[in-house]
Structures are given as C-alpha cells and as structure tokens.
Design goal:
By secondary structure, the protein is α/β, with parallel strands linked by helices. 42% of the residues lie in helices and 14% in strands. It has 14 helices and eleven strands. Helix 3 links the parallel strand 3 and strand 4.
C-alpha cells in the first residue's frame, strides 16, 4: 500500500444542477478548470458540499467522471465514496480508482447510529481499507451525521497502512491535537516533488503521456516507497524530479472558521466547504502559517471567520452555492428539500463576501 502527501487547501466542490434539477456536467467542468488555476492543493468531489446524498448511483459516477476529466494533472483528486455499507463503499471506491482518483474520502456510517459501536466502526474502516485500491481518508462530519467518531477509534485505525488521514469536521481543536499527538509515531514514505508537493501515480502517468521522450517507466517500488531511497535523494521519473518524504497520519480540518487554530494543533491542511467559493482567501491562511508568520495567519483567519461561519456552517449548501455565483463560479440551486436563499439573505451573503472575493 502506498501513502501520499496531503496538505494545503482542498475545496469539496458542489454539484451544479439545471433549473429542472438534472446535473449540469458542463458547469462541473467549468468550476474544476477554474479551481485548477488557483493555489489549492487538490479537489474533493462528492463530499457533503457536493450533495452526494442527493444523487443517484449513476449521477455520482458521472459527476466523478466529469470532475476528473476537467482537473489539472498536478491537483490531488479525492473522491467521496462513503456509503452506509462496506459493499457499496467499495464499489464506488473501485470506480473512483479506475477513473484515476488519488484517495477516497469515506464518511462514517451513521443511519443505524445506535449500532455504531467501536467494533462496528473498526470493522467498517478496516475492511474498506483492506480492499480499497487507493488510500482511504476517514471523514468525520457530526454536523450532518449526528455521529462523532471518537478520537480513540481514529488513533487505532491510523495504524492501518492504507488509512492515511482524516477529514475532521467537528471543529474540535483539542480532538485534532490529541489525534496528531497520539499518531505521531506513524511514519510512512510518500513520493513528493523536489519542492515537496504531492506526487501520485496518476500525476506521473499524465506527465509521461505528455512527454515527447516518453520519460522513464515508473517502477512500483519508487511510488510505494519500498525502494527506500534516502529522503534527500532526487530521482527523475517520467520527467518529474521526485524524492521520498516521511509523512505521518494526516489530519485535515473541515471547519474554515477554525482553520488557523487547527493548523496550530497539528492539522496539515483543510478540506473546507468555505474554500469552494473563496479558495484563495483560505489558501492565504495556510501560506502564512507555512511561512511561520503566525500574526498574518491570524489576520487572514479573522478576515474569513464570520463569513465562513454564516455562509458555510449556517446557510450550508444554498449559502455556498450563492457565494459561488457571486464569486464567478457556477453555483445555482440545491436539490429540494434544500431551499434557495431569500433575496434578503442573498444580500447578506454578498455583504459578507464583499472583501474576500478572489
């Protein structure tokens, strides 16, 4: 099993619809092409923000295909594949892997909440991770599932070679700190570029396809880290200069209004719904933090906190979609029973975003 580097900002993109409610695939492509030109590290498809639970099985597959077709090869692509059963989760994960997705984001099963004891959750994630052809990210999202995966279970699951991290959307900073501290001993080799950006098998394939010389063939060992070159050694594979980097269990924050405190607690980045309408404003927090400028990171956080809380957390999908329309992406309507915003609330959203459009 190979791991991969996760860091920076990953917007979990929305699913656009025509006024009649059918999926507007052209607008998925339009949005993804635009995200590909921003400094985000990757793109998340079929997350909560993507209204995945509102889509048919076929629509989910078609959305995954449309987003992948439009994405730039150097962006990490994450597919939301979590379903209530292991079987359905694996079917969608295998399909995402065939399309070239780099990792699967698997939310906690929650419908039979009273039965979701530690043994059930451990069995669910271990079985998925054992059989998934791509790395797995746990997805804990209590605001939607009304189930909060205990840190102890996450810490136990972190030992699995194919579970590489978690998207933690509880907004609980202490929980992030605890998970980071208690998984610190986990070190795995991941392939990265010379400048320490993520490299995945799909990215290398894309470069090889585009390279006139054909590049070198990629050895599986060089991707899984089993070749064990020293971390300082740079190899050229398919025309990309790559090296190996030690990465641990990677915690990604899910609450934009608490992004900077999450980074301070040990998160490596964020899959942030609020980054969907304003990716660059969220990226600026990460960039300042990465440079060690805590004061600037705090100021950049302050700049978005109120808008993130109101638009992404309180108004949720309809708020995010209106923010997209306001900021030059395609938002459109959500699927019923999610209602469109009133004119008054639309004006409020526009007021909140007036200074952070980018």
């Amino acid at each position: 099993m190979s791991t991969m580097l996760l860091q920076g900002i990953i917007p979990p993109i929305t699913t656009p619809f025509y006024p009649d409610g059918s999926v507007y695939y052209k607008k998925i492509e339009h949005n993804v092409e635009r995200y590909s030109r921003t400094p985000v590290a990757g793109i998340g498809v079929l997350g909560s923000t993507g209204e995945a639970v509102m889509l048919s099985d076929q629509e989910q597959r078609d959305v995954l295909r449309a987003a992948m077709a439009a994405a730039a090869p150097h962006k990490v692509m994450i597919a939301g594949t979590g379903r209530e059963s292991v079987r359905e989760t694996l079917l969608l994960t295998e399909y995402a892997a065939e399309l070239g997705y780099d990792a699967a984001l698997v939310r906690t099963p929650h419908f039979y909440r009273t039965q979701m004891n530690p043994a059930s959750l451990l069995a669910f994630y271990r079985t998925v991770a054992d059989r998934a052809p791509i790395p797995v990210l746990i997805y804990n999202v209590p605001p939607f599932t009304a189930y909060n995966l205990p840190a102890e279970i996450v810490i136990e699951l972190a030992e699995h070679a194919n579970i590489i991290g978690i998207k933690e959307s509880s907004g609980d900073i202490e929980k992030i700190r605890l998970m980071v501290e208690r998984t610190r001993h986990i070190q795995r080799k991941a392939t990265v570029t010379e400048t320490f950006d993520a490299v995945t098998p799909r990215m290398l394939k894309a470069v090889q396809k585009n390279s006139d010389s054909g590049g070198e063939l990629v050895s599986v060992a060089s991707l899984t880290g089993s070749a064990k070159p020293s971390s300082s050694a740079v190899n050229v594979v398919s025309g990309i200069k790559i090296r190996q980097k030690e990465v641990g269990f990677q915690v990604l924050a899910g609450a934009a209004q608490k992004f900077h405190p999450s980074l301070e607690a040990g998160a490596v980045g964020g899959i942030l719904a609020f980054a969907t309408p304003v990716p660059t404003a969220c990226y600026e927090i990460f960039a300042a933090w990465k440079e060690g400028d805590q004061e600037l990171a705090r100021l950049k956080q302050e700049r978005i906190s109120k808008a993130a809380q109101r638009v992404a957390s309180e108004l949720s999908i309809s708020g995010i979609k209106h923010a997209l329309d306001f900021n030059g992406y395609y938002g459109g309507a959500a699927r019923l029973p999610l209602l469109p915003l009133t004119a008054e609330i639309k004006a409020e959203v526009e007021g909140l975003l007036a200074d952070i459009r980018n």
